[in-house]
Design a protein that fits this description.
The complex is a heterodimer of chains A (509) and B (554). With 509 residues, chain A is α+β, with helices and mostly antiparallel strands. Chain A is built from 22 helices and 19 strands. Helices cover 39% and strands 21% of the residues of chain A. The two termini of chain A are 49 Å apart. In chain B, a hairpin with a 7-residue loop joins β25 and β26.
Chain lengths: 509, 554
């Protein structure tokens, strides 16, 4: 047996109000009536009492016959058949149209009345579509029909109807929207053993429900006990402000690079092909520059090239290697092609511009950026046209491939990837090039996380004026974020569904 | 990425033993290729586009058996001397000026080998040949051809032959408009007065490069033993390399390579030239880049594994390699041979100073303030469409268009951010209210002073959607932000067709307009089928940041 005293202390004022009227087999509607409380209050109180094991609520369904749209109308204006007869009694014989207008009936109602009244012998049909009332009809007009009585008595419980009521119900059911059946839930209450015991006790009201300013200042709290709460209770959800979860991850990633001594690079999304491709030793006939892959601008379609000596250096490097010690791509470089404006296809363009602006005394130096890049893709679960790239460069005369691996392993371990490896890869602007892969613990295979390498001399020398190893990487961020948030459809990262944004776990790194 | 189909048997043969799949997969990966999938007996391997020489079973197994140490060092190929002639007429100067040719004899063609030859040709077309723009390859049954062969240009009406997979004689024009291959490659001859053709000693047309071969003389059959190969295009060097890739693969198939004399209008050349190329390699350079300390013997061993020879500071590069432009390419191959998986990582002990972009900090502080005020940050695309930016918003404004977007819903760069927020609210009508959202995003406007003719600025847009729109509530948010930033501002009534007249204002700092604020006009709401009132503002953060920069402390 639970401690009754303690139980009493936990009772909410609503429960206290309900308990005195409770008895076995009382239904909830009666409780509402007897207490004079609102329905939601009674229901809530009963629910709590059931949770506390004091009552048991048995719910049964009850079908109640109620007036429907036409029924409600007929109760006020009279049944159509009565109005039909009424109209006839005032004149000799009439056409159906005359009756329709006089009795304010619809065509449908007229048709029903005709059938009904003929069956009862209340009317006779005369030649030339005229109708007249019979004696039987006049008699009917004077008394209340079973159907009318029935409608007057509604609502009625379908399960407990008298014979005549059932007859009227069956008749009316055939007609349009006169009656309807509403299913209501009947809640019957049974007191448990503890409940019965409690209901016999006199409940004191010497409890403080809420600690208010008044209670505090008056000091009444000193004499009374506090009502005990159910501290395990579920509470309604609330939603606060949130950063977008992708941006939370971006902030973290930025923090990681900052912690490692990297400076942030920023730059435009629209770039000339010169910076996006040519400065990165991407030949002008390279497929990445196709309309299929890269977004080109309609207007302004072309931008301005930088100063002449840089253009010349890049041109020569493409054509024959210039002074970089390379053979170049062996083709005629087209100045106009390099003017074409594109949406940057990678943030590596920021690295190129950064290197071009560096001075000898700035080195060694490290840069990063987290930014959007663009590919002319059709959107599906695995492809987006806007993606976030994590970019980094280390410009250090003493840098080498092992350092690249060192920086990347550190970064990925901070991103939660403990097992990573690099394997040979290819990009036009890096050599050696390396693909970074992480071992996927569930899929049990290596998955690609991004490209990296050391910028080719053909990239660095024209931009910087000398050949210094520049470690570089460009990592796709969406995959990492998707993995963290268990998002497999990449579009869900940018769906901006408020429920998702409100309920998404925060980036816990 | 290009792929090559290789039978597991061929790989096992190259390795000299049956290799477990796991190990094979691993080795393939560390050669710089990817075992993409296994399709019955065939393995499909991805090859990076810089290695067209690996796009055949022969080329790949050659590289692979060398990499795994089974057969290391440079593999020499020789072309026998001959008096086979190809005459290049000066008329092709304008259309397709160069060719490189060879003859390979003694291949026992079966269905599999024919398929392989077609694979090599097709892969080279797509990759190195840039869809035949740069290189077109033709391979012909030598027994059907009478020497000498001529490459000449003819008027389209003077070209008539039976193209591959056809049983009718067709004119050039018919081929380019009716034949599937003709239609696919017609653009490569567009605007030319004359079209190139290879013609044999009987004046029989062999092919019309880069489009199609003749059915009669341009198709290898089971009877073929000897083949004539031509690569045509615009850069002789590129064509020679491509030819070398093909003939070395055919040689590995059991054929014998024969030279041809190419008689250009002004000079004579022999192709193929299979002599290895020399390149100087500084061992210190390699070690410095890789962070290793390899001696000459080890360097040589690594280069041998990648199919090179090394002698006294010089690497000998096989004639089929197209990707070695600079010693750095040798350095990468040394790293691949050494094993990327064996490189020990290191973080150097070098102090560099971190620095976050100041404007980014500014933006973050504003975002944090809004989160504190209960706002949810959204993240929408920079690309949108004209309708969203203008007609839906009841305004006319200039915007920047994309030339070639595959998606017509996303073919314009956004010129303001509020339209994006309204789209977000539109797609969230079924969720709980109030809905309070913000976004910091880039906007794009034309400006001829900029390098690209476009200026990019960052904007903050904030919107509240609830059962009643409230100018007071949204202005409280704006006011809170400006006070947090300690920036004084003034508000003046203005007009803006997206907002309700009399409930829209221009916000200025130091006399410069930086924001619009107001209640969204119901005309706009009903256009977007939004059922709740919305109040919103949009601030130009780029300008605000400049205006708000703290003055240096005295």
């Amino acid at each position: 047996m639970p401690d009754l005293n303690k139980l009493i202390q936990t009772l909410h004022p609503l429960e206290r109000a309900v308990i005195p009227v409770l008895e076995n087999d009382i239904d909830a509607l009666t409780v509402i009536r007897k207490t004079g409380m609102k329905e939601v209050e009674v229901m809530r109180a009963l629910q709590w009492l059931e949770n506390k094991g004091l009552v048991k609520i048995n719910q049964t369904l009850k079908e109640i016959v109620n007036l429907d749209k036409n029924g409600a109308l007929y109760v006020m204006e009279g049944m159509p058949e009565k109005r039909f007869l009424q109209a006839l009694t005032e004149d000799e014989s009439m056409t159906l149209d005359e009756i329709k207008d006089k009795a304010h009936l619809t065509k449908e109602e007229i048709n029903i009345c005709l059938g009904l009244l003929k069956k009862k012998g209340a009317i006779e049909i005369l030649p030339r579509m005229r109708v007249d009332v019979t004696e039987e009809g006049r008699l009917l007009l004077g008394k209340e029909s079973l159907e009318e009585q029935f409608l007057r008595k509604l609502p009625l419980d379908l399960a407990h109807m008298a014979k005549e009521e059932k007859y009227a119900y069956e008749e009316l059911k055939k007609r349009k929207e006169i009656i309807k059946i509403d299913v209501t839930r009947i809640k019957k209450i049974k007191l448990t053993k503890t409940g019965e015991e409690l209901s016999r006790l006199k409940l004191s009201d010497q409890f403080i429900d809420s600690l208010t300013q008044d209670v505090l200042s008056s000091g009444t709290w000193k004499e009374k006990n506090f009502r005990r709460y159910d501290v395990t209770i579920n509470v309604p959800k609330i939603h606060g402000g949130r950063r977008h979860f992708v941006n939370q991850a971006v902030e973290y990633i930025k923090r990681v690079w900052l912690d490692m001594g990297f400076k942030e690079m920023k730059g435009n999304i629209v770039q000339t092909s010169f910076w996006n491709f040519d400065s990165l030793f991407t030949a002008q006939d390279h497929p990445v520059r196709d309309l299929q892959d890269t977004f080109y601008l309609k207007n302004p379609a072309r931008g301005i090239l930088p100063k002449k000596d840089l253009i010349d250096a890049i041109r020569k490097t493409h054509e024959n290697g210039g002074n970089t010690g390379s053979k170049g791509w062996q083709y005629l470089w087209d100045r106009d092609e390099s003017k074409k404006n594109v949406l940057r296809t990678h943030t590596t363009v920021l690295s190129a511009k950064t290197i071009a602006a560096l001075k000898e005394t700035d080195m060694p130096v490290k840069f990063f950026s987290v930014g959007k890049c663009f590919r002319n893709e059709t959107v599906d679960w695995a492809h987006l046209f806007e993606l976030t790239q994590v970019e980094g460069i280390v410009v250090d005369p003493n840098a080498n491939l092992r350092h690249l691996l060192g920086y990347l392993r550190k970064f990925f371990s901070k991103m939660g990837y403990e097992r990573i490896r690099i394997r040979p890869s290819y990009f036009p602007y890096t050599e050696p090039s390396a693909e970074i892969e992480a071992f996927h613990p569930v899929r049990k295979e290596w998955v690609e996380l991004g490209g990296s390498g050391i910028f080719r001399p053909e990239v660095v020398k024209p931009l910087l004026g000398k050949d210094v190893p520049v470690l570089a990487w460009g990592l796709g961020m969406e995959r990492m974020i998707g993995e963290y948030y268990n998002i497999t459809d990449i579009r869900d990262l940018y769906r901006n569904d408020l429920r998702q944004l409100r309920e998404m776990k925060v980036w816990m790194k | 990425m290009p792929t090559v189909n290789i039978s597991k048997k061929a790989l096992d043969r190259a390795m000299g033993k049956n290799v477990p799949l796991d190990q094979l997969k691993d080795r393939v990966a560390f050669l710089g290729t990817v075992l993409e999938k296994i399709d019955g007996e065939d393995m499909i391997i991805e090859v990076f586009p810089n290695r067209p020489d690996m796009l055949s079973e022969q080329g790949f197994t050659r590289a692979f058996s060398s990499f795994t140490g089974r057969r290391v060092g440079i593999k020499n190929y020789y072309a026998k001397k001959s008096d086979y002639r190809v005459i290049i007429d000066r008329s092709v100067n304008e259309v397709r000026p160069y060719t490189a040719c060879a003859i390979v004899k003694g291949i026992k063609f079966d269905d599999k080998k024919i398929k392989e030859v077609i694979q090599i040709q097709e892969k080279l077309h797509v990759t190195y040949g840039r869809n035949r723009r740069k290189v077109a390859v033709g391979i012909y049954p030598f027994e059907k051809i009478k020497l000498p062969i001529r490459l000449e240009a003819r008027k389209p009406e003077d070209i008539r032959f039976m193209p591959l997979e056809s049983s009718d004689l067709m004119t050039a024009q018919q081929i380019l408009t009716k034949h599937p291959a003709g239609r696919a490659y017609a653009h490569l001859l567009e605007g030319k007065q004359m079209y190139p053709v290879f013609v044999d000693g009987n004046n029989e047309i062999l092919s019309m490069p880069p489009v199609i071969n003749s059915e009669r003389t341009g198709k290898i059959t089971l009877k073929t033993r000897d083949v004539f190969i031509e690569c045509s295009g615009f850069d002789f060097n590129t064509l020679s390399k491509c030819l070398n890739i093909i003939v070395t693969a055919l040689s590995d198939m059991g054929g014998q390579i024969f030279e041809m004399d190419l008689e250009y209008p002004k000079k004579k050349v022999k192709t193929p030239n299979l002599a290895p190329e020399e390149m100087k390699l500084d061992i210190n350079y390699a070690n410095r880049i890789l962070g290793l300390n390899l001696d000459e013997v080890e360097i040589k061993r690594c280069l041998n594994k990648m199919g090179y020879e090394y002698k006294a500071g010089k690497a000998l590069i096989p004639s089929y390699r197209t990707d070695v432009l600079h010693p750095i390419d040798l350095v990468e191959d040394i790293a691949i041979a050494y094993g990327y998986d064996k490189l020990k990582e290191e973080i150097p002990n070098v102090a560099t100073i971190a620095e976050e972009d100041k404007f980014e900090i500014f933006k973050r502080k504003i975002a944090e303030t809004l989160v504190g005020l209960g706002f949810i940050e959204t993240n929408t695309y920079n690309l949108t469409n004209k309708e969203n930016l203008t007609t839906n918003m009841g305004v006319n404004m200039e915007f920047v268009e994309i030339e070639n977007s595959k998606n017509s819903d996303y073919n314009v760069l956004r010129s303001w951010v509020i339209p994006g927020l309204l789209q977000v609210l539109k797609s969230n009508k079924h969720h709980e209210f109030p809905q309070k959202v913000f976004e910091i995003g880039t906007i794009f406007k034309k400006n001829p002073k900029e390098e690209t003719g476009i200026v990019e600025m960052e904007r903050l847009a904030v919107a509240i959607s609830n059962t009643r729109a409230d100018y007071t509530e949204i202005k409280q948010i704006l006011d809170n932000i400006f006070r947090s930033l300690n920036i004084e501002y003034s508000v003046n009534e203005t007009e803006h067709d997206s907002f309700i007249p009399g409930r829209v204002a221009r916000v200025s700092v130091n006399g410069k307009g930086v924001a619009y604020i107001g209640e969204i006009n119901p005309i706009i709401l009903s256009k977007l089928a939004l059922e709740m009132p919305i109040s919103a503002f949009e601030i130009n953060l780029t300008d605000l940041y400049t205006l708000a920069k703290p003055k240096p402390q005295v």
